[in-house]
Protein backbone atom coordinates (compact mmCIF):
# COMPACT_ATOMS: atom_id res chain seq x y z
CA UNK A 1 0.00 0.00 0.00
CA UNK A 2 1.33 3.45 -0.88
CA UNK A 3 1.97 5.78 2.09
CA UNK A 4 -0.56 8.34 0.80
CA UNK A 5 -3.32 5.73 0.72
CA UNK A 6 -2.42 4.53 4.23
CA UNK A 7 -2.51 8.11 5.57
CA UNK A 8 -5.81 8.71 3.81
CA UNK A 9 -7.25 5.51 5.28
CA UNK A 10 -6.23 6.55 8.81
CA UNK A 11 -7.71 10.03 8.25
CA UNK A 12 -10.96 8.56 6.94
CA UNK A 13 -11.23 6.29 9.99
CA UNK A 14 -10.60 9.27 12.27
CA UNK A 15 -13.24 11.29 10.42
CA UNK A 16 -15.79 8.56 11.08
CA UNK A 17 -14.57 7.85 14.60
CA UNK A 18 -15.02 11.40 15.84
CA UNK A 19 -18.78 11.83 15.32
CA UNK A 20 -19.42 8.18 16.17
CA UNK A 21 -17.60 8.48 19.50
CA UNK A 22 -19.73 11.56 20.28
CA UNK A 23 -22.88 9.59 19.52
CA UNK A 24 -21.67 6.60 21.55
CA UNK A 25 -20.89 8.77 24.60
CA UNK A 26 -24.27 10.47 24.24
CA UNK A 27 -26.12 7.16 24.04
CA UNK A 28 -24.12 5.78 26.98
CA UNK A 29 -25.17 8.71 29.17
CA UNK A 30 -28.77 8.32 27.98
CA UNK A 31 -28.92 4.61 28.74
CA UNK A 32 -26.95 4.50 32.01
CA UNK A 33 -27.15 8.07 33.36
CA UNK A 34 -29.15 9.27 36.34
CA UNK A 35 -32.32 11.12 35.37
CA UNK A 36 -32.58 14.60 36.86
CA UNK A 37 -35.20 17.28 36.30
CA UNK A 38 -34.53 20.96 36.84
CA UNK A 39 -36.69 24.04 36.49
CA UNK A 40 -35.73 26.25 33.57
CA UNK A 41 -36.80 28.93 31.12
CA UNK A 42 -36.79 28.01 27.45
CA UNK A 43 -37.39 30.81 24.95
CA UNK A 44 -37.04 30.14 21.25
CA UNK A 45 -34.21 32.09 19.66
CA UNK A 46 -33.09 31.78 16.07
CA UNK A 47 -29.60 31.09 14.79
CA UNK A 48 -29.11 31.99 11.10
CA UNK A 49 -26.73 29.05 10.60
CA UNK A 50 -28.12 26.41 12.91
CA UNK A 51 -31.82 27.19 12.82
CA UNK A 52 -34.27 27.27 15.70
CA UNK A 53 -33.67 25.95 19.17
CA UNK A 54 -34.98 26.34 22.70
CA UNK A 55 -32.48 28.30 24.78
CA UNK A 56 -32.42 26.33 28.02
CA UNK A 57 -31.76 28.58 31.00
CA UNK A 58 -31.89 26.72 34.33
CA UNK A 59 -33.74 28.67 37.00
CA UNK A 60 -30.97 28.20 39.51
CA UNK A 61 -28.33 30.49 38.06
CA UNK A 62 -26.54 31.41 41.30
CA UNK A 63 -25.67 29.92 44.69
CA UNK A 64 -23.80 30.99 47.80
CA UNK A 65 -20.09 31.22 47.25
CA UNK A 66 -18.22 28.09 48.42
CA UNK A 67 -15.30 28.54 50.79
CA UNK A 68 -12.01 29.29 49.06
CA UNK A 69 -13.62 30.49 45.83
CA UNK A 70 -11.01 32.62 44.01
CA UNK A 71 -11.91 36.31 43.68
CA UNK A 72 -10.80 38.31 40.64
CA UNK A 73 -13.54 37.99 38.06
CA UNK A 74 -12.36 34.80 36.38
CA UNK A 75 -14.45 31.80 35.37
CA UNK A 76 -13.76 28.78 37.53
CA UNK A 77 -14.80 25.14 37.01
CA UNK A 78 -16.87 23.79 39.90
CA UNK A 79 -18.67 20.50 40.60
CA UNK A 80 -22.24 20.75 41.84
CA UNK A 81 -24.12 17.95 43.58
CA UNK A 82 -27.86 17.98 42.88
CA UNK A 83 -30.59 16.74 45.22
CA UNK A 84 -34.28 16.19 44.67
CA UNK A 85 -36.46 19.07 45.88
CA UNK A 86 -40.12 20.08 45.55
CA UNK A 87 -42.17 18.18 42.96
CA UNK A 88 -39.20 16.05 42.04
CA UNK A 89 -37.25 19.02 40.72
CA UNK A 90 -33.55 18.94 41.54
CA UNK A 91 -31.69 21.80 43.14
CA UNK A 92 -28.02 22.34 43.86
CA UNK A 93 -27.16 20.90 47.27
CA UNK A 94 -23.47 21.77 47.35
CA UNK A 95 -20.73 23.21 45.16
CA UNK A 96 -17.15 22.01 45.30
CA UNK A 97 -14.01 23.53 43.82
CA UNK A 98 -12.46 20.06 43.58
CA UNK A 99 -13.84 17.22 41.44
CA UNK A 100 -16.31 15.04 43.35
CA UNK A 101 -18.00 11.84 42.22
CA UNK A 102 -21.59 10.74 42.56
CA UNK A 103 -24.61 9.94 40.44
CA UNK A 104 -25.95 13.49 40.56
CA UNK A 105 -22.72 15.46 40.19
CA UNK A 106 -22.64 17.95 37.32
CA UNK A 107 -19.65 20.04 36.21
CA UNK A 108 -20.45 23.76 35.96
CA UNK A 109 -18.57 26.98 35.39
CA UNK A 110 -18.82 29.70 38.04
CA UNK A 111 -17.97 33.35 38.35
CA UNK A 112 -18.11 35.58 41.42
CA UNK A 113 -21.12 37.91 41.40
CA UNK A 114 -20.08 39.77 44.55
CA UNK A 115 -22.27 40.27 47.59
CA UNK A 116 -26.06 40.18 47.27
CA UNK A 117 -28.19 40.81 50.40
CA UNK A 118 -25.16 40.28 52.57
CA UNK A 119 -24.25 36.93 51.02
CA UNK A 120 -21.33 36.26 48.69
CA UNK A 121 -22.82 34.75 45.53
CA UNK A 122 -21.43 32.98 42.46
CA UNK A 123 -23.15 32.86 39.07
CA UNK A 124 -23.36 29.50 37.32
CA UNK A 125 -23.05 28.44 33.69
CA UNK A 126 -24.60 25.06 32.96
CA UNK A 127 -22.97 22.70 30.42
CA UNK A 128 -26.01 22.77 28.12
CA UNK A 129 -27.85 25.75 26.76
CA UNK A 130 -29.70 24.59 23.65
CA UNK A 131 -32.29 22.02 22.72
CA UNK A 132 -32.56 21.84 18.95
CA UNK A 133 -36.00 21.22 17.49
CA UNK A 134 -37.35 20.75 14.02
CA UNK A 135 -37.82 24.11 12.31
CA UNK A 136 -41.60 23.82 12.05
CA UNK A 137 -42.02 22.71 15.69
CA UNK A 138 -39.93 25.41 17.36
CA UNK A 139 -42.36 28.39 17.04
CA UNK A 140 -45.23 26.25 18.42
CA UNK A 141 -42.96 25.06 21.23
CA UNK A 142 -42.05 28.65 22.06
CA UNK A 143 -45.74 29.60 22.15
CA UNK A 144 -46.50 26.68 24.46
CA UNK A 145 -43.71 27.56 26.86
CA UNK A 146 -44.87 31.20 26.99
CA UNK A 147 -48.53 30.16 27.62
CA UNK A 148 -47.60 27.76 30.43
CA UNK A 149 -45.37 30.37 31.98
CA UNK A 150 -48.23 32.90 31.97
CA UNK A 151 -50.37 30.28 33.72
CA UNK A 152 -47.71 30.00 36.41
CA UNK A 153 -46.67 26.49 35.41
CA UNK A 154 -43.05 25.40 35.44
CA UNK A 155 -40.93 24.47 32.44
CA UNK A 156 -38.69 21.53 33.25
CA UNK A 157 -35.44 20.42 31.61
CA UNK A 158 -34.80 16.69 31.72
CA UNK A 159 -31.12 15.78 31.86
CA UNK A 160 -29.11 12.64 32.43
CA UNK A 161 -25.85 12.58 34.35
CA UNK A 162 -23.05 10.03 34.18
CA UNK A 163 -19.39 10.28 35.17
CA UNK A 164 -19.39 14.07 35.08
CA UNK A 165 -21.14 14.24 31.70
CA UNK A 166 -24.54 15.87 31.33
CA UNK A 167 -26.90 15.31 28.40
CA UNK A 168 -30.01 17.39 27.91
CA UNK A 169 -32.71 15.02 26.74
CA UNK A 170 -35.95 16.97 26.67
CA UNK A 171 -38.05 19.89 27.88
CA UNK A 172 -41.19 18.93 29.75
CA UNK A 173 -44.41 20.88 30.20
CA UNK A 174 -46.72 19.26 32.77
CA UNK A 175 -44.61 16.14 32.47
CA UNK A 176 -45.14 15.87 28.72
CA UNK A 177 -42.34 16.24 26.16
CA UNK A 178 -42.40 19.58 24.38
CA UNK A 179 -41.79 17.78 21.10
CA UNK A 180 -45.06 15.85 21.54
CA UNK A 181 -46.99 18.93 22.62
CA UNK A 182 -45.68 20.99 19.72
CA UNK A 183 -46.57 18.21 17.29
CA UNK A 184 -50.12 18.10 18.66
CA UNK A 185 -50.40 21.88 18.55
CA UNK A 186 -49.25 21.90 14.94
CA UNK A 187 -51.89 19.43 13.81
CA UNK B 1 -7.62 10.94 -6.97
CA UNK B 2 -5.00 9.12 -4.91
CA UNK B 3 -4.70 6.42 -7.56
CA UNK B 4 -4.19 9.03 -10.27
CA UNK B 5 -1.48 10.73 -8.20
CA UNK B 6 0.68 12.91 -10.50
CA UNK B 7 -1.74 12.58 -13.42
CA UNK B 8 -4.55 14.23 -11.40
CA UNK B 9 -4.99 17.89 -12.22
CA UNK B 10 -4.45 20.36 -9.34
CA UNK B 11 -8.05 21.58 -9.46
CA UNK B 12 -9.29 17.98 -9.19
CA UNK B 13 -7.17 17.38 -6.10
CA UNK B 14 -8.24 20.68 -4.58
CA UNK B 15 -11.91 19.99 -5.25
CA UNK B 16 -11.76 16.45 -3.80
CA UNK B 17 -9.94 17.61 -0.67
CA UNK B 18 -12.21 20.59 -0.16
CA UNK B 19 -15.43 18.58 -0.57
CA UNK B 20 -14.29 15.97 1.93
CA UNK B 21 -13.14 18.62 4.42
CA UNK B 22 -16.48 20.40 4.21
CA UNK B 23 -18.30 17.06 4.53
CA UNK B 24 -16.38 16.28 7.73
CA UNK B 25 -17.24 19.70 9.18
CA UNK B 26 -20.88 19.30 8.26
CA UNK B 27 -20.99 15.80 9.81
CA UNK B 28 -19.48 17.01 13.06
CA UNK B 29 -21.82 20.01 13.27
CA UNK B 30 -24.92 18.00 12.41
CA UNK B 31 -24.19 15.19 14.85
CA UNK B 32 -23.54 17.65 17.68
CA UNK B 33 -26.77 19.47 16.83
CA UNK B 34 -28.98 16.40 16.40
CA UNK B 35 -27.72 14.83 19.62
CA UNK B 36 -27.54 18.12 21.56
CA UNK B 37 -23.93 17.33 22.43
CA UNK B 38 -22.47 19.78 24.93
CA UNK B 39 -19.28 21.56 24.00
CA UNK B 40 -17.80 24.78 22.70
CA UNK B 41 -17.48 25.82 19.06
CA UNK B 42 -13.72 25.87 19.53
CA UNK B 43 -13.76 22.11 20.21
CA UNK B 44 -15.45 21.62 16.85
CA UNK B 45 -12.83 23.77 15.09
CA UNK B 46 -9.99 21.90 16.78
CA UNK B 47 -11.17 18.41 15.86
CA UNK B 48 -12.21 19.50 12.38
CA UNK B 49 -8.66 20.79 11.78
CA UNK B 50 -7.02 17.68 13.23
CA UNK B 51 -8.96 15.18 11.11
CA UNK B 52 -8.82 17.31 7.94
CA UNK B 53 -5.13 18.14 7.71
CA UNK B 54 -4.15 14.65 6.39
CA UNK B 55 -6.27 15.47 3.32
CA UNK B 56 -4.01 18.45 2.66
CA UNK B 57 -0.97 16.15 2.87
CA UNK B 58 -2.14 13.33 0.65
CA UNK B 59 -4.00 15.44 -1.93
CA UNK B 60 -1.48 18.31 -1.74
CA UNK B 61 -4.34 20.74 -1.32
CA UNK B 62 -3.42 24.40 -0.82
CA UNK B 63 -7.03 25.30 -0.02
CA UNK B 64 -7.36 22.76 2.82
CA UNK B 65 -3.91 23.73 4.13
CA UNK B 66 -4.96 27.38 4.13
CA UNK B 67 -8.23 26.55 5.90
CA UNK B 68 -6.27 24.45 8.42
CA UNK B 69 -3.89 27.31 9.20
CA UNK B 70 -6.78 29.74 9.66
CA UNK B 71 -8.60 27.18 11.82
CA UNK B 72 -5.69 26.50 14.20
CA UNK B 73 -5.04 30.23 14.53
CA UNK B 74 -8.68 30.97 15.39
CA UNK B 75 -8.67 28.11 17.89
CA UNK B 76 -5.45 29.37 19.51
CA UNK B 77 -6.82 32.90 19.76
CA UNK B 78 -9.99 31.56 21.42
CA UNK B 79 -7.97 29.59 23.99
CA UNK B 80 -5.79 32.62 24.71
CA UNK B 81 -8.88 34.84 25.05
CA UNK B 82 -10.48 32.38 27.49
CA UNK B 83 -7.32 32.33 29.56
CA UNK B 84 -6.86 36.09 29.23
CA UNK B 85 -10.40 36.66 30.53
CA UNK B 86 -9.54 34.59 33.57
CA UNK B 87 -11.05 31.21 32.76
CA UNK B 88 -9.18 28.93 35.13
CA UNK B 89 -10.20 25.53 33.75
CA UNK B 90 -10.97 23.73 30.53
CA UNK B 91 -8.54 25.79 28.46
CA UNK B 92 -6.03 23.89 26.33
CA UNK B 93 -2.36 24.70 26.87
CA UNK B 94 -1.56 26.38 23.55
CA UNK B 95 2.13 26.75 24.43
CA UNK B 96 2.41 23.08 23.59
CA UNK B 97 -0.49 22.57 21.21
CA UNK B 98 -0.04 25.53 18.84
CA UNK B 99 3.55 24.64 17.86
CA UNK B 100 2.43 21.02 17.38
CA UNK B 101 -0.55 22.09 15.27
CA UNK B 102 1.65 24.41 13.21
CA UNK B 103 4.05 21.51 12.69
CA UNK B 104 1.07 19.64 11.24
CA UNK B 105 1.66 21.51 7.98
CA UNK B 106 5.24 20.17 7.61
CA UNK B 107 4.29 17.00 5.66
CA UNK B 108 2.92 19.36 2.97
CA UNK B 109 5.35 22.28 3.25
CA UNK B 110 8.27 21.48 2.84
CA UNK B 111 7.08 17.88 2.45
CA UNK B 112 9.01 14.63 2.92
CA UNK B 113 11.65 15.65 0.38
CA UNK B 114 12.00 19.17 1.84
CA UNK B 115 11.46 20.86 -1.50
CA UNK B 116 7.78 21.83 -1.66
CA UNK B 117 7.01 25.49 -1.09
CA UNK B 118 3.59 27.09 -0.69
CA UNK B 119 2.24 29.35 -3.41
CA UNK B 120 2.05 33.09 -2.78
CA UNK B 121 -1.33 32.90 -1.03
CA UNK B 122 -0.23 29.96 1.09
CA UNK B 123 2.92 31.80 2.18
CA UNK B 124 0.85 34.80 3.18
CA UNK B 125 -1.52 32.72 5.31
CA UNK B 126 1.32 30.66 6.80
CA UNK B 127 3.26 33.77 7.86
CA UNK B 128 0.15 35.51 9.20
CA UNK B 129 -0.93 32.36 11.05
CA UNK B 130 2.50 31.96 12.64
CA UNK B 131 2.65 35.60 13.74
CA UNK B 132 -0.92 35.84 15.06
CA UNK B 133 -0.69 32.35 16.59
CA UNK B 134 2.52 33.23 18.43
CA UNK B 135 0.94 36.47 19.67
CA UNK B 136 -1.99 34.43 20.98
CA UNK B 137 0.39 32.00 22.70
CA UNK B 138 2.15 35.02 24.22
CA UNK B 139 -1.20 36.24 25.59
CA UNK B 140 -1.82 32.77 27.01
CA UNK B 141 1.65 32.49 28.51
CA UNK B 142 1.53 35.98 30.00
CA UNK B 143 -1.96 35.62 31.48
CA UNK B 144 -2.02 35.01 35.19
CA UNK B 145 -5.20 33.13 36.14
CA UNK B 146 -7.38 35.54 38.08
CA UNK B 147 -4.73 38.22 38.13
CA UNK B 148 -3.21 41.03 36.06
CA UNK B 149 -0.83 40.16 33.26
CA UNK B 150 2.20 42.33 32.51
CA UNK B 151 4.67 40.07 30.68
CA UNK B 152 2.90 40.40 27.35
CA UNK B 153 4.63 43.41 25.65
CA UNK B 154 8.09 41.86 25.55
CA UNK B 155 6.78 38.39 24.66
CA UNK B 156 4.99 39.99 21.70
CA UNK B 157 8.24 41.67 20.58
CA UNK B 158 10.13 38.36 20.81
CA UNK B 159 7.37 36.54 18.89
CA UNK B 160 7.60 39.06 16.05
CA UNK B 161 11.40 38.80 16.06
CA UNK B 162 11.21 34.98 15.82
CA UNK B 163 8.91 35.21 12.78
CA UNK B 164 11.09 37.88 11.17
CA UNK B 165 14.31 35.89 11.62
CA UNK B 166 12.90 32.53 10.54
CA UNK B 167 15.72 30.85 8.58
CA UNK B 168 15.62 30.78 4.78
CA UNK B 169 17.72 28.97 2.23
CA UNK B 170 19.84 30.88 -0.30
CA UNK B 171 17.08 30.88 -2.92
CA UNK B 172 14.60 32.22 -0.35
CA UNK B 173 16.93 35.03 0.70
CA UNK B 174 17.35 36.12 -2.92
CA UNK B 175 13.59 36.42 -3.46
CA UNK B 176 11.93 39.85 -3.33
CA UNK B 177 10.33 40.97 -0.08
CA UNK B 178 6.83 40.32 -1.43
CA UNK B 179 7.66 36.60 -1.59
CA UNK B 180 8.81 36.57 2.04
CA UNK B 181 5.72 37.58 4.00
CA UNK B 182 7.24 36.39 7.29
CA UNK B 183 9.88 39.11 6.93
CA UNK B 184 7.25 41.67 5.96
CA UNK B 185 4.76 40.80 8.75
CA UNK B 186 7.39 40.17 11.44
CA UNK B 187 9.28 43.35 10.59
CA UNK B 188 6.11 45.42 10.37
CA UNK B 189 4.88 44.15 13.75
CA UNK B 190 8.24 44.91 15.36
CA UNK B 191 8.45 48.41 13.88
CA UNK B 192 4.86 49.23 14.88
CA UNK B 193 5.48 48.07 18.47
CA UNK B 194 8.76 50.01 18.53
CA UNK B 195 6.98 53.14 17.29
CA UNK B 196 4.40 52.70 20.06
CA UNK B 197 7.29 52.37 22.52
CA UNK B 198 8.55 55.82 21.54
CA UNK B 199 5.83 57.16 23.85
CA UNK B 200 6.42 57.36 27.58
CA UNK B 201 3.74 55.08 29.06
CA UNK B 202 4.07 52.21 26.56
CA UNK B 203 7.88 52.43 26.84
CA UNK B 204 7.61 51.94 30.62
CA UNK B 205 5.26 48.95 30.07
CA UNK B 206 7.70 47.34 27.63
CA UNK B 207 10.58 47.60 30.11
CA UNK B 208 8.47 46.46 33.06
CA UNK B 209 7.34 43.40 31.11
CA UNK B 210 10.90 42.01 30.93
CA UNK B 211 11.07 40.89 34.58
CA UNK B 212 7.78 38.90 34.62
CA UNK B 213 8.51 37.51 31.15
CA UNK B 214 11.91 36.15 32.20
CA UNK B 215 10.10 34.03 34.77
CA UNK B 216 8.20 32.19 32.03
CA UNK B 217 9.45 29.09 30.25
CA UNK B 218 7.82 30.28 27.01
CA UNK B 219 9.97 33.44 27.10
CA UNK B 220 13.17 31.38 27.36
CA UNK B 221 12.00 29.18 24.49
CA UNK B 222 11.39 32.28 22.36
CA UNK B 223 14.74 33.76 23.38
CA UNK B 224 16.50 30.53 22.42
CA UNK B 225 14.71 30.44 19.06
CA UNK B 226 15.48 34.11 18.38
CA UNK B 227 19.14 33.64 19.34
CA UNK B 228 19.46 30.54 17.14
CA UNK B 229 17.74 32.20 14.19
CA UNK B 230 19.86 35.34 14.68
CA UNK B 231 23.09 33.30 14.48
CA UNK B 232 21.91 31.68 11.24
CA UNK B 233 20.84 35.07 9.85
CA UNK B 234 24.25 36.54 10.75
CA UNK B 235 26.08 33.72 9.01
CA UNK B 236 23.91 34.23 5.94
CA UNK B 237 24.58 37.96 5.93
CA UNK B 238 20.94 38.97 6.51
CA UNK B 239 21.98 42.17 8.29
CA UNK B 240 18.84 44.12 7.43
CA UNK B 241 16.54 41.69 9.27
CA UNK B 242 19.04 41.52 12.13
CA UNK B 243 18.93 45.31 12.41
CA UNK B 244 15.13 45.28 12.68
CA UNK B 245 15.09 42.28 15.04
CA UNK B 246 17.43 44.22 17.34
CA UNK B 247 14.41 46.36 18.28
CA UNK B 248 13.17 43.44 20.40
CA UNK B 249 16.27 43.59 22.61
CA UNK B 250 15.90 47.22 23.71
CA UNK B 251 13.59 46.44 26.72
CA UNK B 252 15.98 43.67 27.86
CA UNK B 253 18.97 46.01 27.76
CA UNK B 254 17.03 48.87 29.36
CA UNK B 255 15.47 46.82 32.16
CA UNK B 256 18.55 46.58 34.42
CA UNK B 257 19.20 50.32 34.02
CA UNK B 258 15.67 51.58 34.67
CA UNK B 259 14.59 51.92 38.30
CA UNK B 260 11.01 50.80 39.12
CA UNK B 261 10.01 54.37 39.99
CA UNK B 262 11.55 55.93 36.86
CA UNK B 263 9.34 57.36 34.15
CA UNK B 264 9.29 55.87 30.67
CA UNK B 265 10.79 58.82 28.80
CA UNK B 266 14.47 57.65 28.79
CA UNK B 267 13.37 54.38 27.18
CA UNK B 268 11.02 56.21 24.80
CA UNK B 269 13.90 58.42 23.64
CA UNK B 270 16.15 55.37 23.38
CA UNK B 271 13.56 53.65 21.22
CA UNK B 272 13.37 56.70 18.93
CA UNK B 273 17.15 56.68 18.58
CA UNK B 274 17.33 52.92 17.99
CA UNK B 275 14.60 53.19 15.33
CA UNK B 276 16.57 56.00 13.69
CA UNK B 277 19.73 53.89 13.79
CA UNK B 278 17.82 50.92 12.34
CA UNK B 279 16.48 53.06 9.51
CA UNK B 280 19.95 54.41 8.76
CA UNK B 281 21.31 50.84 8.80
CA UNK B 282 18.64 49.71 6.32
CA UNK B 283 19.65 52.53 3.96
CA UNK B 284 23.38 52.13 4.47
CA UNK B 285 23.31 48.39 3.83
CA UNK B 286 21.94 49.02 0.37
CA UNK B 287 24.62 51.60 -0.35
CA UNK B 288 27.46 49.25 0.66
CA UNK B 289 26.17 46.54 -1.66
CA UNK B 290 24.40 44.36 0.94
CA UNK B 291 20.75 43.30 0.95
CA UNK B 292 19.11 46.35 2.52
CA UNK B 293 15.81 48.15 2.36
CA UNK B 294 16.55 51.78 1.62
CA UNK B 295 12.95 52.75 0.90
CA UNK B 296 11.68 51.18 4.14
CA UNK B 297 14.47 52.91 6.02
CA UNK B 298 13.53 56.26 4.50
CA UNK B 299 9.84 55.66 5.28
CA UNK B 300 10.77 54.88 8.87
CA UNK B 301 12.77 58.10 9.23
CA UNK B 302 9.91 60.09 7.70
CA UNK B 303 7.44 58.45 10.09
CA UNK B 304 9.64 59.11 13.11
CA UNK B 305 10.05 62.76 12.22
CA UNK B 306 6.29 63.14 11.65
CA UNK B 307 5.51 61.53 15.01
CA UNK B 308 7.95 63.77 16.85
CA UNK B 309 6.65 66.80 14.95
CA UNK B 310 3.12 65.91 16.02
CA UNK B 311 4.30 65.88 19.68
CA UNK B 312 6.27 69.12 19.32
CA UNK B 313 4.88 72.30 20.80
CA UNK B 314 4.95 74.34 17.58
CA UNK B 315 2.24 76.01 15.51
CA UNK B 316 0.06 74.07 13.10
CA UNK B 317 1.54 76.06 10.21
CA UNK B 318 5.07 74.91 11.06
CA UNK B 319 3.85 71.33 11.41
CA UNK B 320 2.15 71.52 8.01
CA UNK B 321 5.24 72.94 6.34
CA UNK B 322 7.42 70.30 7.96
CA UNK B 323 5.04 67.62 6.75
CA UNK B 324 5.33 68.91 3.16
CA UNK B 325 9.14 69.08 3.37
CA UNK B 326 9.34 65.53 4.76
CA UNK B 327 7.00 64.20 2.08
CA UNK B 328 8.98 65.92 -0.68
CA UNK B 329 12.24 64.61 0.73
CA UNK B 330 10.85 61.08 0.90
CA UNK B 331 9.64 61.25 -2.73
CA UNK B 332 13.00 62.64 -3.89
CA UNK B 333 14.84 59.87 -2.08
CA UNK B 334 12.61 57.26 -3.71
CA UNK B 335 13.37 58.72 -7.16
CA UNK B 336 17.05 58.67 -6.36
CA UNK B 337 16.90 55.01 -5.24
CA UNK B 338 14.93 54.01 -8.33
CA UNK B 339 17.48 55.67 -10.61
CA UNK B 340 20.37 54.14 -8.68
CA UNK B 341 18.90 50.65 -8.91
CA UNK B 342 18.30 51.08 -12.64
CA UNK B 343 21.94 52.11 -13.13
CA UNK B 344 23.09 49.12 -11.07
CA UNK B 345 20.87 46.76 -13.07
CA UNK B 346 22.33 47.99 -16.38
CA UNK B 347 25.93 47.42 -15.45
CA UNK B 348 26.70 48.91 -12.08
CA UNK B 349 27.65 46.97 -8.98
CA UNK B 350 25.04 44.50 -7.60
CA UNK B 351 22.80 45.82 -4.79
Report what the structure shows.
The complex is a heterodimer of chains A (187) and B (351). Chain A is α+β, with helices and mostly antiparallel strands. Chain A has two domains: 1-32; 33-186, no CATH class. Chain A is 28% helix and 42% strand. In chain A, the strands form three sheets. In chain A, strands 4-1-11-12-13 form a five-stranded antiparallel sheet. Chain A has a five-stranded antiparallel sheet with strand order 5-9-8-6-7, with no helix packed on it. In chain A, a hairpin with a 5-residue loop joins strand 6 (75-84) and strand 7. In chain A, helix 2 crosses helix 3. The radius of gyration of chain A is 20 Å and the shape is globular. The model of chain B has no long low-confidence stretch (mean pLDDT 89). In chain B, helix 2 (41-59) packs antiparallel against helix 3. Chain B has helices spanning 10-34, 41-59, 62-84, 94-103, 120-142, 152-164, 170-174, 181-196, 200-208, 210-214, 217-235, 239-245, 250-254, 265-287, 294-311, 316-345. Chain B is mainly α and 351 residues long. Helices cover 71% and strands 0% of the residues of chain B. The relative contact order of chain B is 0.06. The A-B interface holds A 2, 4-5, 7-8, 10-11, 14-15, 18-19, 22-23, 26, 50, 70-77, 109, 127-128, 130-132, 165-169 and B 2, 5, 20, 24, 27-29, 31-38, 47, 50-52, 54-55, 57-58, 82, 85-90, 145-147.
Helical percent range of chain A?
25-40%
What is the H/E string of chain A? HEEEEEEEEEEHEEEH
**β-sheet strand percentage of chain A:** 35-45%
Largest interface: A-B, 34 and 33 residues
The amount of helix of chain B comes to: over 70%
User: Which whole number gives the mean pLDDT of chain B?
Assistant: 89
Class by SSE composition of chain A: alpha+beta
- Tell me the quaternary state: heterodimer
* Count of individual beta strands of chain B: 0
End-to-end CA span of chain B: 46 Å
* Strand-residue proportion of chain B: under 5%
Mean pLDDT of chain A: 87
User: What shape does the CA trace of chain A take?
Assistant: globular
Counting structural domains of chain A, the number is 2
The number of helical runs of chain A is 3
Secondary-structure element series of chain B: HHHHHHHHHHHHHHHH
Major sheet attributes of chain A:
5 strands, antiparallel
